[in-house]
Amino acid sequence: MVDPKVNLPTNDITTMHEAIPFLPVPVAITCLLFNIFIPGSGTIISGFSALCMGQPRINMKEGRKLITLVVNLLVGISQFFTITFLFVGWFWSIAWGGLLIIHSMQYREALQQRRQEAVATAAIEALTKDSILHRRDVKTLVKSHKKSKK
């Protein structure tokens, strides 16, 4: 079975941007919609979703999911409370939701590519093994056919 986790390189400078998790695309779209209607709510949901169905992007050995949750929680709260400053929180929230979708689509494409490579490898191995087994079967059939003629 293919490991569902794919390590995509992140070129984010800050831990805050690295905290945007890889989520299934429908979940990322749902988070964007929540961010549009209630700024920060989709960001908080994405942090909790990373615990059970997503993959954190933070490059740390331990506590990746916890750090992702905490950062998304803090960013979501910040987005909500900065709505009053010329809707800064609302625009920030929508941009965050857009990044969620972009990262989720990149992750989905990487998963699909990895699955295709695994299927191709398995097919090549199966064909190679099958042809070797087939040759043996043909040899035994030829030998048995020759014996039956004699």
UniProtKB/TrEMBL annotation:
GO terms for cellular component: membrane; sensory dendrite. Coiled coil: none annotated. It comes from the Eukaryota. It is found in: Membrane. The chain crosses the membrane at residues 27-54, 66-83. Keywords: Membrane, Transmembrane, Transmembrane helix. The keyword Transmembrane applies. It is a multi-pass membrane protein. Its main location: membrane. GO terms for biological process: proprioception; sensory perception of mechanical stimulus; taxis. This is Protein SPEC3. The lineage of its organism: Eukaryota, Metazoa, Ecdysozoa, Nematoda, Chromadorea. The gene is Cni-Y97E10AL.1.
